[in-house]
Amino acid sequence: MTDTADPSAVDAQVRAATRAGLAVGLATAAYGVSFGALSVAAGLDVWQTCVLSLLMFTGGSQFALVGVLAAGGAAAGPAAIASAALLGARNALYGIRVKPLVGGGFWQKFAAAWLTIDESTAVSTAQTAPRAQRRGFWVTGAAVFVGWNLTTLIGALLGDALGDVRAYGLDAAAAAAFLGLLWPRLRRLQPIVVAIGAAVVAAVLTPWLPAGVPVLAAAVVAVAVGLTDWLGRRDASGSADPIVGDGGAP
Amino acid sequence: MTLWQIVLIGAIACLALKLLGYLVPASVLARPATARTADLITVALLAALISVQTLAVGTAIELDARIPALIVAAGLFALRVPFVVVVVAAAAVAALIRLWF
Asked: In terms of one coarse class, where is the protein primarily found (chain A) (predicted)?
């Protein structure tokens, strides 16, 4: 379908993409609160927490960074950074997919790269008309950015006021948050096997390595399975679909 | 390392990765094996983080209220309960268990 195929149908799709983007922005904003609270619980201050949401702006990496710091403190810094970067690597692949859709010159591309996350990529690539793809990307990216940063601040201030986090079960909330990010990706056998293998590797290595390193070591499971395509699905297109369909965080 | 250094280096690394997708020719990163592996790394890291977050205290394994909380969370996600509700429920389960036992 192209922009000129059927103007009214395209207009309808652009409106639908706009609505989808705003809805996704609203939904993800809600868990900015949990990120803000967990980040403060991990030992970061309110400013550091807000800088993460503004500059890093990719939820999985942010949760990972504060999760590793919560376990190992500042000494686990290198492992925390590496975990965040490894989790953020998928955004580079999203960039390849949405780059032709967003248009514009250098600064617009720069802003687009900043806003390239699970949600903006998913809403954009779900559209068929180029105008709707572009609208879906920008509305989703902007809505998630505004909501995520505002609610991160609220969560950080709340977490600051809470004090002892274990009494409120915030450590368990962090595990549940990671599970929520993982859940939509467990639709095929291959990722399920990788998830179980990685969880076991991380747990077994925990007593033997510094905090944070077992998480990185678990990535080896993914590399081994990914390169050999063990338990892979041989489909005609030959490309894995890395986009979260529903329920993922930024 | 100070916390500020960790925050800034981590953030810049993640932003650089986003820019990378816009700068390199698509053919370099768009191979199926690369896409598949990147996807599985995301899965592996999230699973490893769940495991460590649920079982570890520093470098020790400690089985406590986090395990039932995670089981409740898994059940709620299976029932398609929204993210925030599940996270709050998991926290509540752990907090109540600690309060009562």
From this structure: membrane
